Structures are given as structure tokens and as C-alpha cells.
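Just scan my protein:

. . .
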Amino acid sequence: MIEKGPDYFKFSNPGNLRIPIEIAMQGGRSDPRNVILHQMFSYLGYGERAGSGLYMINKVWSEKKEWIKPKMEVELNPNRTMLTLYMKKQQFVNNYPNNYPNNYPNELTQIQIKILEIIKANPRINVRQISEQIKEIKYDAVRWNIAELKKKKNYR
């Protein structure tokens, strides 16, 4: 399944990878789960059995240093493998005001206050890093909360 979001593409397949994610990302080991689909792409000139697909995707994204790194996830119930490619630059919070008041406005949620505290501690942090620190919500929810904070003029 392919999901297109406002700034990402998420590719997901039922089942788990048959090799560890680290090895898949390093490349050099081909193990297509759906051989017929692989052959179809090969006939179209878009597939080869080099085991380099995830490696090349990772390489392109790492060359674009401002891009958010691809995210590879495996869910266990139901078994599903997902690769998210973010088509957006890292969102560094460079303009966070140093003199932000210690008392936050009442209309902020606890998550938004937590986000502001994380940014206050590290003004150059990006959205991905913030989402790794806040376990209660996913990456997209962190992005949404940051957008809400921007609307409320709590930071630029």
C-alpha cells in the first residue's frame, strides 16, 4: 500500500522483513518477498536483483543533508513493514526566543508545553528528534502540535 501525505510517502507491505533492517539498509543482499512484483519492475527497467533498493534510498536521503531521514518500521500485530520517505527538509527551530516566559499560556496542551521545553533545552533540535523524546505521540502528531504552536505565535 502507498500512502501519500502532505510531505511524505509511506510504503507498507504485509509481513515482516526476512532479513534484519540493518542488513537491508546496508544493501548487497536481495530477498524479494513478492518475486512476481519484482519481475514486473525488472521488465519495466526499474528492478534488479542487487539488494540495493533500501541502500540507494538511504544514500539519496543522506546526501540531501537537510532532508528528514527515511523511517523504516516493523509492526507486529498485524505484521507489517513500512518505509516512510519524507519529502520535506529538517525543521530546525533556529528562531526560538531566548527570553520565552517560564509561565506558558493556559491554552497550551501538556504535549505542547513538553515540546516547548525540549526546544528550550536544545534550540537546534529537529522534529524527528523531538518525536523520539516524546513517546506518547507519533511523529505526525508532533508536527501537528508544532504547527499549532506556530499558529498561536509561541515560536517561529
Observations:
- Confidence is low (pLDDT under 50) at residues 92-102.
- The beta strands are 2-4, 8-14, 71-76, 79-86.
